[in-house]
Amino acid sequence: MPRLLGHGCFGCGTANPHGLGMTFSRRGDRVLAEVTLGRPHMGWDRIAHGGVVSTVLDEVMAWAVIALERVYFVTRSMTVTYRRPVPLEVPLVAEGWLLGRDPPRSCTTAARLLDPAGELLAEAKAEMVYLAKDRLGVLSAGLRAEMDELFEAMARLDQEVAQ
Known about the structure:
alpha+beta, 25% helix, globular
């Protein structure tokens, strides 16, 4: 999937030296990301901080909304269930998808984080609220233009896959 370059987002930004630098791919109605958490993401000894784990899950759900809904939105609420300690320095897979739609207001999303053996480490559900165009004043005009271009690129990818 295309990326937004030069942004400071902790999850997916390319201009944040402390961020996760997540990239995403799409498999049908699911969005996937591989991520390896390191010492800067530590909570207890050799275990990822729960806040970082929730960030990974929130980010993959957000990109599911970007890929599948192509709307501006914010996370209204999110519930995380931690199933097992999340190890550091191990490649993990985050997967996000839509559970339901309530246009033009919101959608419900879900995500899970898996270890290399496919064991469930954490899972989440969230409500994402769509933002009307008149509520986008907090975003710079440049970012809005880049997001619109990203939505168009996603639509082109869908058309290529359908052919």
